[in-house]
Amino acid sequence: MTLKETKNRCTWADSAPDFPRYHDTEWGFPVAEDQRLFEKLCLETFQSGLSWRTILAKRDSFREAFQHFDIQTVAQFGEKEVAELLANKHIVRNKRKILAVINNAKRAQDMIKEEGSIAAFLWRYEPDEATLPPPETQTTCPESIALAKELKKRGWQFVGPTTIYAFMQSMGLINDHAEGCFMREKIDRARQEFKRPSRANPSK
Hints:
α3 packs across α11 (161-170). The protein has a single domain (23-193), classed as Hypothetical protein, domain 2 (Endonuclease III, domain 1, Orthogonal Bundle). The termini are far apart. The chain is built from twelve helices and no strands. With 204 residues, it is mainly alpha-helical.
């Protein structure tokens, strides 16, 4: 008996072979680890104009190519590493997106110095659940628009409101599991138990 046959999921979760496990074990659980948050922002950058199915299928290759998205390491990537990435047939070979990820690693370093952590900054934009429309009915919200604007102001690239909203959904800043999805209550409980990150020892 397959996962699909035994679970009532969000409609999108049954549209590709890799989606059910991702939906059941990752999507929507709140995340406070900087490296995981940065990785997801990078993967959302590569997804721009493509499908998440494409990116998820290549995720392990992305992790290997980008040194598991270690912020300090990626921020030091230069021409040699860019050339290697452009020659890597296992990832999306888009030079603008590769350069954006390297740029964003540097901006992430700045954010950690200024805010204490990426998580402390991003979670300030968690929407009030009472203001959100029903699940699966929108692709942006006022908070994703505001966060995208602030990130761009800080020099981040490929961080439009729709990209940021998808990031919020996947990293648990929003519970957008459909009504009736067996994961919705689990994510609600996880969000209730989750300790929101706070500003921690910024350098200024």
